[in-house]
Design brief:
Largest sheet: 2 strands, parallel
Strand content: 15-25%
Shape: globular
Radius of gyration: 16 Å
Helix content: 40-55%
Order of helices and strands: EHEHEHHE
CATH architecture: 3-Layer(aba) Sandwich
Number of strands: 4
Number of helices: 4
CATH superfamily: HUPs
Low-confidence stretches: none
CATH class: Alpha Beta
Length: 123
């Protein structure tokens, strides 16, 4: 969520929850993977915030575990956001049908405008 006219922007990452991930013999590995993902997300949020602050922007970061589109929309509402800026991978076809799109769901459910930014293509 972007900061405008003195209001802080919010860097936000939602780690997808999925219920009980303790499949026979795999519980510890799954927990380690989730912890590694959470650490990665926290580090990237901190880097983003440091870059934004060095440019003179007021920012805060949030790291949540839940259902991404629901948490993004709820946080925007709770924070009184005027705009949600969200990245999208630009998937289409079967991948989009099978995986769904957090961005699409945020656009449909949000009460404020949503700016979808496509990830640059790599060569």
């Amino acid at each position: 969520m972007a900061g405008v006219e003195g209001h802080p922007g919010t860097g936000f990452y939602v780690e997808r929850s999925g219920g009980d991930h303790t499949h026979a013999g795999q519980g510890e590995r799954v927990r380690e993977a989730y912890e590694a993902a959470r650490t990665w997300a926290a580090e990237h949020l901190d880097q983003w915030a440091a870059t934004a602050r060095s440019e003179g922007l007021a920012v805060k970061t949030l790291l949540r575990t839940g259902i991404p589109h629901e948490d993004i929309v709820a946080t925007a509402r709770d924070e009184g956001a005027d705009l949600i800026a969200i990245g999208t991978h630009g998937r289409g076809g079967l991948n989009r049908l099978m995986l769904g799109s957090v961005c699409d769901r945020v656009i449909r459910l949000s009460s404020c405008p949503v700016l979808a930014v496509r990830e640059p293509e790599t060569e």
